[in-house]
Each structure stands twice: as structure tokens, then as C-alpha cells.
User: Fold this.
Amino acid sequence: MVNRSYYVTAVWDAEAGVWVSESDIIGLHVEAQTLEEFEQLVDEFAAEMIVANHLTEADLQLPLQDLIPSVRVSHKPAA
Assistant:
């Protein structure tokens, strides 16, 4: 069965001055100066990383509605 829920958390890296990702999506590594840019990058790359790293050939034969995951984006306040 396909996992249909993934998480991405934006964590502020004060030393680097960027938001960085913590995620259960294998291969997804996001860094951005703003949360808006962070969310845009997650929207752009999350689905690609899910297909590449979490789905099998058998999964790809399932109906589209069974493959569209839920990706929850949140952020941790800067310290």
C-alpha cells in the first residue's frame, strides 16, 4: 500500500541564515531564505522525490487518486 501522507518541516538555521527541511521524503533537501520560497521549493520537488524514492513499479499502476500524497508543511519558529 502506498503511503499517502508525508511531512516537511521548515527549521530555521541561524548560522546559515536559511530555512532547512526536515522530512520523511527520501531525497528531499530544501534550503530557502524565506518561508514562501521554502514552500515553493517543496511544491516543486516533493512529488518528484516521492515518485523516485517511495513508489514501486506496482504502485505506479494504481489509479491517480491513490498516488497523490498529502504533504504537510510546517515550520518551527526561529529561536
